[in-house]
Amino acid sequence: MKRAIHFLLFGVILLAAFGAVAPSVRANGCTMRDAAGQYGFTLTGVLITPTGAVPAAAVGRATVDAIGNVTGTEARNVGGGYADETLSGTLTVNPDCTGSMTLNIYQGGQLVRTSVLSIVFVNNQQELRMVQKSLTLPNNVSVPAVITVDAKKTFSDQ
Fold it and tell me: Are 129 and 135 in contact (CB under 8 A)?
């Protein structure tokens, strides 16, 4: 009887120890599952052209699924020219809460650019900060850009 009580007590202590460790492991790392959700975002910056810097801004919303697919819409203004656009692409998330996003941007169903962004999650994966790594036109011309994006989760898909 004494042995059964010790065995049961050991099992309870072991379960409690695992329960105490599991939340701290999750709290110190980011996952694709936790990145899933709906986001609202703002984009600001400049495109650098041969004739000078051209201001760019956008607002939009995007949905990320649990395997990293991204879809969304944005309203953008570049140098005073407005357009409604759609986007689709992929997101990767590293355990250190960094990652990357590659987006194809369409206007009227036509690809207008591909953007690659470096990212970092903050606020327990409720917010996302991004900086433009590259911007490529459909004809493979790279456009220098200094653009940042701030995104906040509006709804979680968990």
Answer: no
Q: Which segments within 50-126 are labelled E, that is strand?
A: 52-64, 69-78, 81-93, 98-107, 110-122
Cα–Cα distance for residue pair 65/36, rounded to 1 Å: 5
Could you report the per-residue pLDDT of 36-78, keeping only the tens digit for each?
Answer: 999 999 999 999 999 999 999 999 999 999 999 999 999 999 9
- Report how far residue 101's alpha carbon sits from residue 90's, in angstroms, rounded to the nearest whole number: 6
The count of C-alpha atoms lying within 13 angstroms of the C-alpha of 150, restricted to the half-sphere facing its C-beta, is 4
Which range marks the domain in which residue 3 is found? 1-30
Contact 127, 40 (CB under 8 A): no
Handedness of CA 149, 136, 90, 80 (dihedral sign): positive
Structure tokens at 78: 């570049």
Per DSSP, the three-state class of 114 is strand
Q: Are strands 69-78 and 52-64 parallel, antiparallel or unpaired?
A: antiparallel
Q: What is the pTM of this model?
A: 0.80
CA–CA distance, 81 with 34 (Å, rounded to integer): 36
3-state secondary structure of 130: strand
Q: Are residues 100 and 140 in the same domain?
A: yes
Q: What total number of domains does the chain contain?
A: 2
